[in-house]
Amino acid sequence: MEPHVNGPFTPDLAHPISKLGQTAKDSSWPLDIKVGLIGSCTNSSYEDMSRSASIARQALNKGVKSKSKFTITPGSEQIRATIERDGQAETLRQIGGVVLANACGPCIGQWDRKDVAKGEKNTIVTSYNRNFTGRNDANPATHAFVTSPELVTALSIAGTLDFNPETDSLLAADGSKFKFETPYGDELPTKGFDPGQDTYQAPPADGSGVSVNVDPNSTRLQLLTPFAKWDGKDIENMPVLIKVKGKCTTDHISMAGYWLKFRGHLDNISNNLLIGATNIENGEANNVKNQLNGQFGTVPEVARFYKANNVPWCVIGDENYGEGSSREHAALEPRHLGGRAIIVKSFARIHETNLKKQGMLPLTFANPADYDKIQPSDRISLIGLKNLEPGKPLQCKITHADGGSETIELNHSMNEGQITWFRAGSALNRMAELKASQ
After folding, report:
1. How many whole angstroms separate alpha carbon 396 and alpha carbon 237?
2. Which residues pair with 143 in a beta bridge?
3. Cβ burial, residue 273 (10 Å; 0-12/13-18/19+)
4. Which residue in 26, 112, 215, 323 has the most C-beta neighbors within 10 A?
């Protein structure tokens, strides 16, 4: 198979490497590659790093370094230690690479990028698995492309999207031309893996006397407060916080980048709730109508207004809602801000489970066409919650702004244990109940 590069702005857009350059020119995508980034939890196996190092070694033998900035993120302490011992890390440094910590980094926006201004159109190429708008650096103008680690390395050395390492030559330091040979890397280290540093700290055998003190004025840490239990009643007349149009990933629901510094403070990070989702009512992101006062505001502002007025709300979504990173805050935030149900055509599996854990109701249209029946100005009632059972649909009453109403069916995939999470208010609440009963 010919190597492919996917992007920009979505992993769904694939280009054979032989056609990428012309497609980029035709689409007015920036050809100049500002940064190449390899590794992360996605593509940083020993073989990945070895194949990338084999490309780098060929360039070094010709006196060539990376034209683009270049970063390497080991996927684990074991990989970091092993590629340091076996030399791949040093080879990648020699072409100008910077080896980052073996932790989540630029992949989810934990990256203090300063080479371009926000809003400046630019291109980066990564071996990560996500390239949604603004994900890697919080810059919506960054054209992020994803491909294999060795292809990222080759493109970074060339510095441009219209380089095809299968056919094109580079200029060596002595003025001669050379082509890359097919990269090679051992699947496993011949010396075995180096486990690296043992950073595990065991918890105390008896934690009953341990207290956690958090500054109440901290903006980055906050002790969690248990969510309220279900009151035993149907949830009626919920306003639609937002009816989402099209793709809605966990990056749209809980954006990364700048926001991740608040991941220990649920209330503060909740200010990014659904700010990347497209509102079907106006085609805009982060601009929804408050159904209580008629004014438009940001999604978090309107959600907070409903919560302050003790009005539960719901979200209406499209296909594969919640795809992407298994980001727990994407489920915590709607629950924290007063949401009770997410009603969509279909869910990404992990996000659906995360919603269940937080006591949210993840529901799907029995007839996907019923998505079109709900308008942003409608009120939604969930009928029959007392009889919620595995495999049994729920009745949903839609009350339109003109006073008319209609009823549709909603499916769910909750088993008996997950239904107890909903009734208790969350999975953690249920665990506390069980502990208290022992």
Report:
1. 10
2. 123
3. buried
4. 323
Q: Torsions phi, psi of 194, nearest 5? A: -90, 120
Mean pLDDT (whole number) for 388-409: 97
Average pLDDT of the residues of the chain: 96
Between CA 298 and CA 272 the distance in angstroms is 9
Mean pLDDT for 332-361 is: 98
Contacts of 36 (CB under 8 A, 6+ apart): 66, 68, 69, 70, 71, 124, 125, 126, 152, 153, 155, 156
One-letter amino acid at 210 equals: V
**Half-sphere exposure at residue 116, Cβ-oriented, CA atoms within 13 angstroms:** 21
Give me the architecture of the 4-178 domain, per CATH. Answer: 2-Layer Sandwich (3.30)
Instruction: Give dist(CA 41, CA 128) in Å, integer.
Output: 8
Q: Which of 419, 265, 435, 288 lies closest to 357, judged by CA?
A: 419
* Domain chopping of the chain, boundaries: 4-178, 235-437
Burial class (CB in 10 A: 0-12, 13-18, 19+), 421: buried
CA distance 252 to 239: 20
* CA within 13 Å, CB half, 283: 0
